[in-house]
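In the design runs reported in the main text, the only information available to the sequence generator was the tokenized backbone. The following block is the verbatim input for one such run; it is reproduced so that readers can re-run the procedure and compare outputs position by position.
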């Protein structure tokens, strides 16, 4: 397995990967008001049966120009693209935003996403960034687990982030230069 810089010849292979996922757990949001205080809590909850969830974004932005402030890496196995990560830098606050992290379903749970995260980290550090941010649906327990396992911490949410009005969870990892 090899992680390498993507190019536009990889675009069709990346777009052909099904980014949907299966989950059997979710993070449920609960809101509780006590006088002038409002408390928001996320509780991990098991679903009655596994659920296939559609990817909440389009992949059209992969065709955007490759610039210095963008990292697009692919994972290749046996000459075939099996995953990719796409990150853009927000220089003004020294943060890289992971726009897409997708691995082909037949190649999941083999450490490919972790290797792609490491490649993005290396790129971000070389760009002088100090943090990486990722977002995912509350339904995307596989991604939640991946980010937490790789040192990302929960740092916020938006309760109407996606076009389908799903809640987005935000995870971050930081380092100092």
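Verbatim output:
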């Amino acid at each position: 397995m090899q992680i390498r810089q993507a190019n536009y010849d990889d675009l069709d292979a990346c777009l052909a990967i099904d980014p949907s996922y299966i989950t059997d757990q979710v993070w449920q949001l609960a809101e509780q008001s006590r006088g002038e205080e409002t408390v928001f809590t996320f509780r991990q909850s098991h679903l009655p049966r596994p659920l296939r969830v559609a990817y909440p974004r389009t992949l059209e932005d992969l065709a955007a120009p490759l610039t210095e402030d963008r990292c697009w890496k692919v994972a290749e196995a046996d000459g075939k693209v099996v995953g990719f990560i796409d990150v853009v830098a927000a220089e003004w606050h020294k943060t890289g935003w992971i726009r897409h992290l997708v691995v082909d379903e037949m190649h999941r749970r083999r450490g490919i996403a972790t290797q792609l995260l490491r490649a993005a980290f290396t790129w971000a550090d070389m760009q002088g960034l100090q943090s990486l941010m990722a977002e995912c649906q509350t339904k995307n327990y596989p991604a939640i687990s991946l980010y937490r396992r790789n040192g990302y911490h929960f740092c916020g949410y938006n309760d109407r982030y996606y076009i389908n009005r799903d809640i987005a969870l935000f995870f971050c990892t930081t380092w100092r230069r």
